[in-house]
């Protein structure tokens, strides 16, 4: 399937309401959030501190009278500079371009699958700044196989699931973790679509370098094609 056809499939699926958070949260209660290097307001925030970044995000949500902040697809971010897991002296190979959609909301928030799926893999990715507990679901729609990744979950989310376990669309699959388990970030869901897992299990790159971003644009299309926030 071509990249264009795959994007069209996702967009068609997204024409009906799909949710990874509580479906009773109206889309009017979602507010865009810019965490890019171009956001001047972040230059006064210590983004290496999950507490201070969380305060900034909470203020942003409150000022907009919203419940959820979202965004980040293909956003070039400075928040990864704190971690050797992403950092590199070469600007071409430094990983700082975000490949998923982040949804910022409090810890223990339930997470749902937007589509029928089965557990491809799960893992606690414990590098500093990594996903923490992660679940990857496999979906088959019209004979097309693709995957969705859910990162920054609670540890409890991966304690009682099994590879091959099936979840119906709209079923709760997890809860969000806090900074003590989620890679040291303010609580949020990293939601990512993956066309080809490339042999990964329980993990898949969620941040790209400039050198590799064109590949990931093809393999990881915008998750908002599904959610349409």
Give your account of this protein's structure:
- The strands form 3 sheets. Strands 1-2-4-11-8-7-6-9 form an 8-stranded mixed β-sheet, covered by helices on one side. Strands 3-12 form a two-stranded antiparallel ribbon.
- The protein has a single domain (3-7, 30-223), classed as Glucose Permease (Domain IIA) (Distorted Sandwich).
- The model has no long low-confidence stretch (mean pLDDT 94).
- The two termini are 25 Å apart.
- The chain contains 4 helices and 12 strands.
- It has helices at 3-13, 50-63, 213-219, 224-227; strands at residues 30-32, 68-71, 95-98, 101-104, 110-112, 117-125, 132-141, 144-151, 166-167, 172-175, 188-194, 207-209.
- The chain is α+β, with helices and mostly antiparallel strands.
- Residues 97-196 form the M23ase beta-sheet core domain.
- GO terms for molecular function: metalloendopeptidase activity; transaminase activity.
- This is Putative enzyme with aminotransferase class-III domain protein.
- InterPro entries: Cell_wall_metabolism_enzyme (IPR050570), Dup_hybrid_motif (IPR011055), M23ase_b-sheet_dom (IPR016047).
Q: What is the CATH class designation?
A: Mainly Beta
Number of strands: 12
**Number of helical segments with 4 or more residues:** 4
**Topology-level CATH name:** Glucose Permease (Domain IIA)
The overall pLDDT average reads: 94
Listing every helix as H and every strand as E from the N terminus to the C terminus, the arrangement reads HEHEEEEEEEEEEEHH
Across the major sheet, the strand order is 1-2-4-11-8-7-6-9
Give the CATH H-level superfamily.
Glucose Permease (Domain IIA)
Q: Mind telling me which CATH architecture this is?
A: Distorted Sandwich
**Strand portion:** 25-35%
In whole angstroms, the N-to-C terminal distance is 25 Å
Shape: globular
Helical fraction = 10-25%
Largest sheet: 8 strands, mixed
Pfam families: Peptidase_M23
Keywords: Aminotransferase, Transferase
InterPro entries: Cell_wall_metabolism_enzyme (IPR050570), Dup_hybrid_motif (IPR011055), M23ase_b-sheet_dom (IPR016047)
GO molecular function, one term: transaminase activity
